[in-house]
Design brief:
alpha/beta, TIM Barrel, 2 domains, three-stranded antiparallel beta sheet, 14 helices, 17 strands, rSAM_sf, cytoplasm, metal ion binding, rSAM, coproporphyrinogen oxidase activity
Length: 385
């Protein structure tokens, strides 16, 4: 397993203007929350983390949530200054922040730019106002156009938007319209996710009561295949199951996760992976703040056994369309090969035509065209009982 200090940094800002009906992330409605005290706690966690595991140069930063852009411009400035204080950011680092349409005015965008942010990932989800309302989003389509325009005026050109498919009552035609409108924005990156009904969400309660009119499996598959064909037809590279980019605009931070490489994870509910251990932070805002006064605000820390790390390598690595290879495997697990550890599983999945062999970098495996829509079945094949 890799033992160097992480070169990727994830920071969680858990506040939102409201809670979406499908969301099970660590997020809390902003009103009445102790935001400044949370930023104090986050800075204490940064200081302790940098002392415990001194950072080398950070190559990617990702600020997620929640909605980090609910911070006011002064809070944003202060937060971004604290990141730079404790973590040496490489001059060419990718520095991403999630944003919600309608929460990025020009002053805030200038604060983000001045603080080092150079990539914005915007949670659009749909270009259909009726669907946006149905899933609990509080922005509308006009907010999307205004926010993208503001970002460009503030000097951001590395922009990505998230769209969702398989939403309640969504048709293939509605999705097709959203994708066409998204492409008309001429952005360099798009993330396209199928809805998952997670526990502890409003959608899960409705699903249990049989009150969530989800598209059929066939329709959902048709949506996914339409997305792939449309984005590839528009000159985008399908580089990961749910992600499409123009060359050079792939999400470098997410590639860290997909390559099973270490990363710092800071903030309430954040996950981190370093020195062969994974940790999860305390989720509640006040408990997180309280804990940070005396110690790292960790909920639990677990060593990752080598076998589990190898399974993780396969499961996340195969999400990328270039797949996994023996050079990377040997770098993380010296003396071992993918074939020596997963021969039986490979045989089974290759026989089903879901994987194909690649020659590059010591040889490896990637999803076949048939395997792409059945990715979850492939990934599951490499997880131990």
């Amino acid at each position: 397993m890799l033992t160097h200090a992480p070169r990727a940094l994830y920071i969680h800002i858990p506040f939102c203007t409201n809670k979406c009906h499908y969301c099970d992330f660590t997020s809390y409605v902003l009103k009445g929350q102790p935001v400044d005290e949370y930023l104090d706690a986050l800075e204490r966690e940064m200081a302790m983390t940098a002392q415990l595991l001194p950072p080398e140069e950070i190559r990617t930063v990702f600020v997620g949530g929640g909605t980090p852009t609910v911070l006011t411009p002064p809070q944003m400035e202060r937060f971004l200054a604290s990141v730079k204080k404790y973590f040496p950011i490489h001059p060419d680092a990718e520095f991403s922040m999630e944003a919600n349409p309608g929460t990025v005015d020009i002053d805030k965008l200038h604060a983000m730019k001045a603080g080092g942010v150079n990539r914005i990932s915007m949670g659009v989800q749909s270009f259909d106002n009726g669907l946006l309302e149905r899933i609990g989003r509080i922005h509308n389509v006009d907010d999307v156009y205004r926010s993208i325009e503001n970002a460009r005026m503030a000097g951001f050109n590395n922009l990505s938007i998230d769209l969702m498919f398989g939403l309640p009552g969504q048709t293939v035609e509605q999705l097709s319209d959203s994708v066409a409108r998204a492409l008309a924005l001429k952005l360099p990156h798009y993330s396209l996710y199928g809805l998952k009904v997670e526990e502890n969400t409003l959608f899960h309660k409705l699903y249990e009561r049989n009150e969530l009119p989800l598209p059929s499996e066939d329709d959902e598959l048709a949506m996914y295949m339409h997305l792939i064909a449309t984005l590839k037809g528009a000159g985008f590279q399908h580089y990961e199951i749910s992600n499409f980019a123009k060359p050079g605009f792939e999400s470098k931070h997410n590639i860290t996760y997909w390559r099973n490489e270490p990363y710092y994870g800071l903030g309430a509910g954040a996950h981190g992976y370093a020195k062969g251990e994974r940790h999860i932070n305390i989720k509640g805002i006040q408990p997180f703040i309280d804990a940070s006064l005396n110690r790292l605000p960790r909920l639990e820390t677990n060593p990752v056994p080598e076998r589990e790390a190898m399974e993780d390598f396969m499961m996340v690595g195969l999400r990328m369309l270039e797949g996994v290879n023996n050079d990377d495997f040997a770098r993380q697990f010296p003396g071992l090969t993918i074939e020596s550890e997963f021969g039986e599983q490979l045989e089974a999945v290759l026989a089903q035509g879901l994987l194909e062999h690649t020659e590059e970098r010591g040889g490896g495996y990637r999803l076949s065209e048939k395997g792409i829509p059945l990715g979850n079945e492939v990934f599951g094949a490499f997880i131990g009982e």
